[in-house]
Amino acid sequence: MRDTFVDVTTAALDDDPRLAVVLADISADRFTGAAARHPDRVINVGIREQLMIGTAGGLALTGMRPVVHTYAPFLIERAFEQIKLDLVHQDVGALLVSNGGSYDVPSAGRTHMAPGDVAVMDSLPGWTVHVPGHATEAARLLEAAFRTDDRVYLRMSERGNAAARPVGEGIVPIRTGSARSLGVVLAVGPMLDRVLAATRELDVTVAYTATVRPFDRAGLNRLVGEAGQADVLMVEPYLEGTSAHEIAAALSDRRHRQLSLGVSRADEVRIYGTSADHDRVHGLDADGIARSARDFFLV
Amino acid sequence: MATTTLSRYADLPALIGLMTGDEKHQAASESTLDVLWVLYDRVLDISPETVDDPDRDRFLLSKGHGPSAYYAVLATKGFIDVRTLRNWTRADSPLGYHPDRVLIPGVEIGSGSLGHGLGLAVGTALGLRAQGRTKPRVFVLVGDGELDEGSNHEAIAAAGRLGLDGITVIAVDNRSGTHGWPGGIAERFKVEGWAARTVSGRDHDALHSAFTTPHPGRPLVVVAHVNTKG
Fold first, then answer.
1. A59 touches chain B (CB under 8 A)
2. How far, in Å, CA of B57 to CA of A212, rounded?
3. Does the beta carbon of B82 lie under 8 angstroms from any beta carbon of chain A?
4. Interface pTM (ipTM) of the complex?
5. How far apart (Å, rounded) are the C-alpha atoms in residues B211 and B190?
6. Domain B9-225, what architecture?
7. Where are the domains of chain B?
8. FRET partner for B192 with CA separation of 20 to 30 A, picked from A167, A220, A293, B131?
9. Nearest-CA distance from A228 to chain B in Å?
10. Position B3 confidence tier, pLDDT thresholds 50, 70, 90
11. What is the pLDDT at residue B116?
12. How far is the C-alpha of A286 from the C-alpha of A211, rounded, in Å?
């Protein structure tokens, strides 16, 4: 996904004089060609994350379209007040693109993990948040975001699904349950293939979205209305319950049950290993999701 | 319009008095008053008619706390209706204790939390450079206490190394930083590649001379000394 980001952004820099990339050393080696062609529009501020967001705000104030990229903990958490004030409070936009979200680089440990990034961004108004599950999806979402002045956070992942799914259309059903189905399972971005495997034996509707903000409340309400039960299992690759309030709002006109799966809030998981090891700890591997689904749907 | 009659430096205390209720003493305690006056009266190419002109000069008030002198100067130059000053900080007023660019024409940034203006200025200068706009200059006003914020040090180092000669920082120094700046503020900028001038923050001609100092290839800091806070 990161290679795709570099490729589509490099191509867009050649075509769109409004576009500017702001880096803090991370991935700068991948933009050397673009920087040689567009020295004023590929800006590496060094390891200065506060400045990288301030720079994006200033670029936007002059009418440019800044694309800001580094690891999620540095992009979202270290410079959070800059995101709040240098972008939102100034009423300007930027496209923030992170990698290394929840635990994509587990051998690096907690310092390079940011399972709370989407929850933190959710405390600010007016952001579109994309969590693509495939490089092709990421490319489509990026190309659309280049052409706007919106505030967009795109969360890249090292992992994803075997096939690209529709993006930019809200929540889309992937597999539809019967009229007597147990409910709806909503998978975000990289979680889809695991969710499909985990729910293979269950009569449920499995739906997908690569865009979690704004949340497609009407789309979820419609799918739940068509299901046998108003029960929703949400599976997100970041902090558990991040979208629970959106589901509650989407279904405020129905008696419903909901369960959120995601990275556990209970403890700091102090292990290295692989992403699969962390999936197991958080119950986000196919077996863990299947167990949670059977419990929740009372199978 | 009342703004046409209250347009002199001598009118500023009365205008500040509309906000603070004190015409005699408040003005003298405003550390930024003279800097702001000289900028808007003699330096900045900006007017109420050109607030959206992409080639206008930019003035970024990073030290957004205590903006009454800023509002008064904006009123003398017609950006703000004088009568608006009287109702400042009320729910229906565009004027708060910290200025908001969305609410006030001609205000380039919303500020108040310290340490944001210089980073925004770096981006603004880079954006103007990328668009080939060589005319606009970017002026940023910071306080010496505000320089404690690490975000400023990120911006000072990068602006110096990137040779952002479109930027002029005015550091109003009333020695309010808790641990101070050994060797003076100007030295901290110079070591990062900036041009520097140090002047009295009350001397209009000295301020004007400093603000208009040529500084090709490097950003400029003007340290404006005013009386010690308190």
1. yes
2. 40
3. no
4. 0.95
5. 16
6. 3-Layer(aba) Sandwich (3.40)
7. 9-225
8. B131
9. 48
10. very low
11. 98
12. 22
Q: Starting at the edge strand that comes first in sequence, how are the strands of the sheet with A205-209 ordered?
A: A172-175, A205-209, A184-188, A231-239, A257-263
Residue in the structure block whose two tokens are 């046998």: A228
Cβ separation B119–A50 shorter than 8 A:
yes
CA–CA separation, B148 and B86 (whole Å) = 33
Pairing outcome for strands A127-130 and A211-213? antiparallel
Instruction: Quick: pLDDT tens for A87-115.
Output: 999 999 999 999 988 999 999 999 999 99
Question: What's the pLDDT tens digit per position in A120-139?
Answer: 999 999 999 999 999 999 99
C-alpha distances (whole Å) from B167 to each of A243, B11, B90 are 43, 30, 34
Q: Which amino acid is at B77?
A: K
Q: Are B149 and B68 in contact (CB under 8 A)?
A: no
CB contact under 8 A, A55 and B154: no
Inter-CA distances, B142 with A157, B149, B172, Å: 40, 11, 6
Environment class of A37 (CB within 10 Å of its CB; exposed 0-12, middle 13-18, buried 19+): exposed
Radius of gyration of chain B (CA): 17
Joined together, the tokens standing for residue A170 give 């809200």
CA dist., res. A224 & res. A208, Å (int): 13
| DSSP conformation class of B54 | T
Q: How far apart are CA A189 and CA A155, in angstroms?
A: 10
Smallest Cα distance from B181 to chain A, Å: 22
- What whole-number distance in Å separates Cα of residue A289 and Cα of residue A226? 23
Minimum-distance CB partner of B158 among A41, A48, A86: A48
Question: Which amino acid does the sequence have at B171?
Answer: A
Q: Say how far apart CA B68 and CA B65 lie, in whole Å.
A: 9
Residue B205: is it exposed, middle or buried by C-beta count within 10 angstroms (0-12/13-18/19+)? exposed
CB A59 to CB B108 under 8 A? no
Q: Nearest 5°: CA angle at B210, between A55 and B215? A: 55
Token match 């410079």: residue?
A79
In chain A, DSSP finds a helix count (H) and a strand count (E) of 12, 12
Write out the two tokens for A131: 């969590």
Alpha carbons within 13 angstroms on the beta-carbon side of residue B229 total 13
Q: Answer whether B91 touches A (CB < 8 Å).
A: no
Query: Tokens standing for B141?
Result: 């006003």
CB of A90 less than 8 A from some CB of B: yes
B109 lies within 8 A of chain A by CB = yes
Direct distance between the N- and C-terminal alpha carbons of chain A, in angstroms, rounded to an integer: 37
- Phi then psi for B225, rounded to 5 degrees? -80, 130
Q: What is the pLDDT of residues B121-165, one digit of tens each?
A: 999 999 999 999 999 999 999 999 999 999 999 999 999 999 999
Does B63 contact chain A (CB < 8 Å)? no
